[in-house]
Amino acid sequence: MADTAASTSRGPRGPKPKRIFSGTNILLYGILILVSLYYLVPLWVMIMTSLKTMPEIRIGNVFAPPVEITFQPWIQAWSQHCTGLVCKGLSPGFWNSVQILVPSVILSIVIASINGYALINWKFKGSEVFFVILMIGAFIPYQIMLYPMVIMLRELGVYGSLTGLVIVHTIFGMPILTLLFRNYFSSVPEELFKAARVDGAGFWGIYFRIMLPMALPIFVVAIILQVTGIWNDFLFGVVFISKAENYPMTVQLNNIVNSVQGIKEYNVNMAATLLTGLVPLVVYFLSGKLFVRGIAAGAVKG
Amino acid sequence: MSTSKYSVQIKDLDLAFGAVKVLNSLDLDIGEGEFLVLLGSSGCGKSTLLNCIAGLLEPTDGEIWIKGENVTWKEPSERGIGMVFQSYALYPQMTVEGNMSFGLKNARVPADEIKKRVARAAAVLQIEPLLQRKPGALSGGQRQRVAIGRALVRDVDVFLFDEPLSNLDAKLRADLRVEIKRLHQQLKNTMIYVTHDQVEAMTLADRIAIMKSGNIMQLSTPDEIYNRPQNKYVADFIGSPSMNFIGGDLERGTFKSGGIVLPMTGYQFAAPQVADRPATIGIRPEHVATGALVAAAPIKLDTVVDLVEPMGSDTLVWIKLGDMPFRVRMDGQARVHHGDHLTIGIDPSKASLFDTKTEVRL
Amino acid sequence: MAVVDQSAAPVSAERSAARARKPNKLFRNLTAKIAMIPLVFVSVGVFVGFTIWTIVYSFTSSKLLPKLNFVGFEQYTRLWADRRWLQSIENLAIFGFFSLILTLVVGFTLAALLDRKIRGEDVFRTIILYPFALSFIVTGLVWQWILNPQFGIQHIVQSLGWTSFQFDPLNNPDIVLYGILIAGIWQGTGLIMCIMLAGLRGIDDDIWKAAKVDGIGTLKTYLRIIIPMMRPVFITSLVLIAAGIIKVYDLVVAQTSGGPGLASQMPAMYVYDYMFGGQNLGQGFAASTMMLVTVAIILIPWAYLEFGGKKRG
Prior knowledge:
heterotrimer; A: mainly alpha; MetI-like fold; 2 domains; 15 helices; disordered N terminus; C: MetI-like fold; 73% helix; flat
């Protein structure tokens, strides 16, 4: 009975454990709890360190909770910490990242969803070839395309600006997102598309009236994928942003923590690190299974 | 432009995907108000042909005319067709009313006219209570009715059906089959109907086109196809249980195979003079006489029962004729068993004779 | 019949004759083609064009600016004579080898454990996967802090009484790669575990029943039946991990900046430094071309196995 229920609901498939406190079970849960500690410790350490004062850090150990909780490191990391002569903390980086993130996510998803739809429903001779090139492109190390990209952005007059970075993210996000949408639209029955054509709807009519409303879940998956991906980017931020005041949050964080000047303020560093990780973490914990679906869609080709 | 007596004409239509020929220079004229069924097993090109007529597939060569107008390169919506799909293909996010009016909105038909036409179609199909529902909340039969309604509101002359009943269970399929037939009687539109189900084909069609690997094997009335199949493929395809075939030789008007000798008296040969040659005779299980009817049959044979399949309404009896297995349909009350002796009667005028090599009817 | 039509309605026939001609193939579904311009531009222009551009310029003596004065394989000769590049390649090989093995083994083991019908599967999965949502920069910085010799693990073990305990990977050239490895595994195993779990869930329940009926033990069933059945999943994981390893950059930048000395230098850092820091473009181009070659060496056999075999089969 339990077996059939499990297999129909696509639940765990291994053989059923016998008793809750059997030897294997103690071993099983023991290992899992130990492993969980390995994964949780860094988060714990980050939070604890960020709530301590520097004197307490110097005498205590990194794992111990703070004796006296202070939020000063957070405030300092967010708005007061100095990089060179500028003392604005991480907040400019945060706003830069937001300004990069929002248009990048929208633009990349709009283009990729149209790509996926056109690749499935409006094939023309050679359209599959472009898709295959795009998929191969996903594996090409970015490094080999960086310099020509710099030249292109310079020609367009957007090198070093946030706009330039938006273009870069849109381009390099295209393979995975196109794959995501293409696979989704290929699961939509072809007859639906045919019916719409008989009903006189054209390219955009079918896209907006038929396909888009059906694809809302996959748009959410794409948004999750892009928000975490673009927020976490470091390489493109370093390469394509030329002025320090335009740096995205990750780049600014690295500059703060790994700066060789001044005394190391570990509590501020950890608060800054946590602040940078906050956006993807919130997305992760809110999205739950959709996040898994997103990375699985990205990982396993259809 | 309706001076043409044909509603749809296919002229020398070719379709190839790379080196694979899917349609092979087809010619087909479909009359005004005719119900034509394209019948064949999967991969025979019947759906492909329908998609070409609808404008959903581009032919490699040839022309398609609808109502006396060459529509080969026209958009599907400009061809004056309505189409019903196997998977219903209802837009899931729209209500039934939205589904039915989508095409009219695209054609910029005025709103009050749309309302009128939707109401009329809904009345014909008895789906008025469902108009505000989404397709997800409908049963399979209701969905297919809505799909037909979507074609109906377009007020077109030609209806295309692509296996519309294949996704339904047997009972519902029979019900909707009758409804489609009634709809045709009422509307008198031209209907082109693709199916692999011979019962649907036989019951619905004015004419049936049996297709095989991109060719039309026979285009005739159901009666003609059943009684005078033009080739062995059609003979084998139509009829359930299928026709018995015995290979042998035709010698001066008599069919001989092993110890069996069948003088073909009463058989209508396709040509007045048929030369001797290797031939195959086809006899439908239901055309074999048993019991009291044997007396009236021109030819009588003694056989032994091998296997009995009782089916309720009738009984399928497997016998050995010579060395060949041979099926005989008896009524449901027949009490025969393995090993029983059975005398059967054969009427050559109801048989079909084919050239063994070309498989064409003699 | 067509003659009748023409005489009956000449205007209409004329129009239909015009429409009857086969339209130019190029302009069929023009909107769709216009909508695909970004796709075509990115695939051909960027991915193919930019790559070829860099490969071509890797054969030039470009310094501060790209210039087309070809010098043959000189940049490559210089590259393979550079101690820093050789060290980077060696580092990548060691890091890659352990990273690949550990990620696969840990990822599969965790997936198998989670597949044992345990309670709280969702909780464990959430815990194991969350690091994947974090950037390499955040990952590198937090592990830099945990491995800090003055305050981190070494300090704690020493203060517990084991004063001779030494664990300072980020400042010890001999073991610095393992320090990075710990962080890399922490960030990346969640993804592989999820892929493996999906693979395990895809295996028919009847396989387990059959193995049970045949009296095959659990461990043996995994090793002899399940893992061979999951070959495609393993290959996909392998390709994903490998492609990630070759690009490794942010993690090392955040954790060690390539130090101490050259002990944790990586090819991607070499490329960046020569292209954007060292003003020696030719070297950067040659190094990035070598990265592409490495990816191709991994990818081509995989693509052959994955797609080449299907066509013939």
